[in-house]
Design brief:
about 350 residues; mainly alpha; 5,6-Dimethylbenzimidazole Phosphoribosyltransferase, Chain: A, domain 1; Rossmann fold; 2 domains; 3-stranded parallel sheet; two-stranded parallel ribbon; Nict_dMeBzImd_PRibTrfase_bact; Nict_dMeBzImd_PRibTrfase_sf; Nicotinate-nucleotide--dimethylbenzimidazole phosphoribosyltransferase; nicotinate-nucleotide-dimethylbenzimidazole phosphoribosyltransferase activity; cobalamin biosynthesis
Length: about 350
């Protein structure tokens, strides 16, 4: 059992009272007020602490079903080097808000011996099984990856992180994400499968077939009650590591800003492991992938932004950081109606 603290309800109440007393009509700042109260509860104080140290951790790995993607799996290894060079989409966008980006090779199907040791320190395996015909992971690997994600979250928090963002990089990863959401929420493949990196309708039909076969195989082989069995059968080492990252952020009382479809899928599984962890998560943005919409609805999370993004990497969540900072500024710096002359 992983112990999850609860956000401070008294701080939330005090925040709502202060927001109502600011120099504005009641509720005039809409979602910003809701986010400000959420942050106060998370930090246990009014106003909440500044969000100065934002950390993005990109979990990189390949997937046995990458043949349904518009890009070859070799792109994953190449992108690890792009992250390290600071030239990826999330690097550029994170730089605009002062966030730090770290990439971790959890399951890239390549020899990355030339990259720094801290990138490779948590590697579980090379790639994963093709979930339509076999399990994604070997026995024990899902728990090992989950523990790796927890350790990575602990390291970022120990280094000063006050907001965590899970990123993802892996060609084909929207397929296991769709399978995880479908299996967890009891949905058919056709409802959760999208176009991923930009496949056409024929490609989407192939992807639906893969997910359908994966769900049928899982239903026959497992009893459906153990989230680690689910991650083993239909997920990936990256999904398990992301789930561990999300849970440990909550266990340490540090807010986590979810990104798109992949972190949404990891989150619905992580909630099965630690139900109260969801209280520490926010949804950074709305992905174009249908499985994310189902995941966020199940988690009770409303995306902060809707920009039509589908890059992954943590890039969408990074764009929500200024909104969170604006919410904090509102409650910290606006004047009070009672102080008007």
């Amino acid at each position: 059992m992983i112990e999850i603290p609860l956000p401070d309800p008294e701080a939330r109440t005090a925040a709502l009272e202060r927001l109502d007393a600011l120099v504005k009509p009641l509720g005039a700042l809409g979602r910003l007020e809701e986010l400000a109260a959420w942050l106060c509860a998370a930090h246990g104080q009014v106003p909440p602490k500044p969000l100065d140290d934002v950390r993005v951790v990109v979990f990189a790995g390949d997937h046995g079903v990458s043949s349904v993607s518009a890009y070859p799996r070799e792109v994953t290894a190449a992108m690890v080097r792009v992250f390290l060079a600071g030239k990826s989409g999330v690097n550029v966008l994170a730089g605009q808000v002062g966030a730090k980006v770290r990439v971790v090779d959890i399951a890239v199907d390549a020899d990355l011996s030339d990259v720094p040791e801290d990138v490779r320190a948590f590697k579980i395996r090379r790639g994963s099984g093709s979930i339509d015909v076999e399990d994604a992971l070997a026995p024990g690997e899902a728990r090992a990856a989950f523990d790796a994600g927890r350790a990575i979250a602990d390291a970022e928090i120990a280094d000063g992180a006050d907001l965590l963002i899970p990123g993802d990089m892996g060609i084909g990863n929207t397929t296991p994400a769709a399978a995880l959401v479908a299996a967890t929420l009891g949905l058919p493949a056709a409802d959760v499968v999208g176009t991923g990196t930009g496949i056409d309708e024929a490609g989407r039909e192939r992807k639906i077939s893969v997910v359908s076969h994966a769900l049928a195989r899982y239903a026959q082989a497992k009893d459906g009650t153990d989230p680690f069995d689910l991650l083993t059968a239909l997920g990936s080492a990256c999904a398990a590591a992301t789930a561990g990252f999300l849970v440990q952020g909550a266990a340490r009382g540090v807010p986590v800003l979810l990104d798109g479809v992949f972190s949404g899928a990891a989150a619905v599984v992580a909630r099965e492991i630690a139900p109260d962890a969801v209280r520490w998560w926010l949804a950074g943005h709305r992905s174009t992938e249908p499985s994310q919409a189902f995941a966020l609805k199940a988690l009770g999370l409303e995306p902060i932004l809707d920009l039509g993004l589908r890059l992954g990497e943590g890039s969408g969540a990074v764009q929500a950081v200024p909104t969170l900072r604006a919410a904090r500024a509102v409650i910290a710096d606006m004047g009070l109606l009672a102080d008007l002359a």
